[in-house]
Amino acid sequence: MAVPAATTQTYAIVGTREDLSDEIYNISPTDTPVLSRIARVKATQTNHEWLTDALAAAASNRRIEGDDATALTADPRTRLNNYTQISSKPMNVSGTSRAVNNAGMEDELSYQVVKRGKELKNDQEFAITQNQASSAGGAGTARSSASMESWIATNRTGVGLTTFTTPGFASGAVAAPTDASVTGSVTEANLKAVIRECYSVGGSPTMIVVGPGMKQKASGFTGIATQYRENSGVKQATILAAAAVYVSDFGEFRIVPDRFSRDRTLLGIDPDLWAVAQLRGVQRETLAKTGDADKTMLITEWTLESRNEKGNFKITDINSAL
């Protein structure tokens, strides 16, 4: 069909208003499964300390009738520590940016504060689940909080093809574990073995934290509990291809994917044995104006409290593609 002569089309019009949606779409991850499940406690120093204790190993306990009592030597408690680290999100927004008509928001500064707050939470989840060492810092070096991977040293196995190390807590500090140079394939037998090891020393973890690749591999383990969803006879059951719960000989584990954890490491944790100790909770600080811009900063100071690493486990150096 031909367009009639002298027909005005949009291509020739000057002054057509823009069509910009008043919504801002952001799919960046904000779920923090580990940070959201562990406790919050108060820290009062940059070197946060706590105590752990353990019962004596079970043994044959028989005494002669009428025998005199001999006091047992008491084992000392263990004093642990972790250093607080400062995490912040500074932002500057010009006066003009706050004055103009922006799509999707009333005020650019308020929008940035909300956005940076979510980023700060993600940064904490990242630090908690990684292999970061603790450090007291210095005049030109930031303090750092040791992460879960670094704390867990007792119940662990590696599936890499070379030696790995997990030094754990020693001499007032926690070193970062050394990764194997070559990763390997993890099996359900590896998982069963480390769960048994953890149970034998008194642990009762309830949560397996994995990266996206390892989550798909874990769904193929035979010990998964959820293969279908109940529908109360209303309609055909839905088949599930993902593992929600792993049933072991020593308890059930919720398998939780975490976008911020390393895909090469599987963490088995007891949320009751971890806490975030806050020296300063998340605060908004207004910074001094030095020109035509508003300056503010979100800041928090915190550390990870490992109440007893023996109640947790890990499998390291995994290649989830194998």
Structure characterization notes:
The protein has 5 helices and 16 strands. With 322 residues, it is of the alpha+beta class. It has one domain. The strands form 5 sheets. A 6-stranded mixed sheet has the order 5-16-13-8-12-11. The protein has a 4-stranded mixed sheet with strand order 1-14-15-4. A two-stranded antiparallel sheet has the order 2-3. The longest helix has 22 residues. It is extended and about 115 Å long.
The gist of it:
The chain has one domain (39-50, 78-316).
Per-chain topology:
Blueprint lengths: L38 E4 L4 E6 L25 E6 L1 E10 H5 L8 H22 L18 H4 L4 E3 L10 E2 L2 E2 L13 H13 L6 E4 L1 H7 L9 E2 L8 E2 L5 E4 L2 E7 L8 E4 L4 E13 L6 E14 L6 E4 L6
Parallel strand pairs: 1-14, 5-16, 8-12
Antiparallel strand pairs: 2-3, 4-15, 6-7, 8-13, 9-10, 11-12, 13-16, 14-15
Entry keywords:
single chain, 322 residues, alpha+beta, six-stranded mixed β-sheet, 5 helices, 16 strands, extended
The unreliable regions are 227-231, 237-242
| Domain tally | 1
**Quick one: overall form?**
extended
Strand content: 25-35%
Instruction: Indicate the radius of gyration in whole angstroms.
Output: 27 Å
User: Can you write the helix and strand succession as a string?
Assistant: EEEEHHHEEEHEHEEEEEEEE
Individual helix count: 5
Query: The biggest beta sheet, please?
Result: 6 strands, mixed
Helix content: 10-25%
Number of strands: 16
Q: How would you state the average pLDDT, rounded?
A: 88
Distance between the termini: 59 Å
- Structural class given helices, strands, pairing? alpha+beta
Strand order of the largest sheet: 5-16-13-8-12-11
